[in-house]
Amino acid sequence: PNLILYTSDPWKGKPAQLNAFSDLKKAKEYVNWRLIDVPSPNNQKETWVDYYWRDFGVPMPKFGRGIQIIRTHELYQQERMRNVVIELINKKDKVRA
């Protein structure tokens, strides 16, 4: 089984998210950044995604074995995804219909 971890969505900067940072002004700069590009509020070497994923990712084997985590920013870099995007662009009139 696969689990999609949305890492390319924009960081919204909701009040609770902003308040996780000690520097509110700096935190506001991250609004609309991809989640994978936002640093952890506690460790600039770690991402927002990795920091908050720990609570779910570490105990994951207790809930199911063989679960493959698919991070969207990695998926979008794969050749097969590029091929799908190119095909959709080439067939945009049919897709819109």
Automatic annotation (TrEMBL):
Annotated organism of origin: marine sediment metagenome
Transmembrane segment boundaries: none
GO cellular component labels: cytoplasm
Biological-process GO terms, alphabetical: lysyl-tRNA aminoacylation
GO molecular function annotations of the record: ATP binding; lysine-tRNA ligase activity
Protein name in the entry: Uncharacterized protein
InterPro entries listed in its UniProt record: Lys-tRNA-ligase (IPR002904), Rossmann-like_a/b/a_fold (IPR014729)
Any Pfam family matching the protein: tRNA-synt_1f
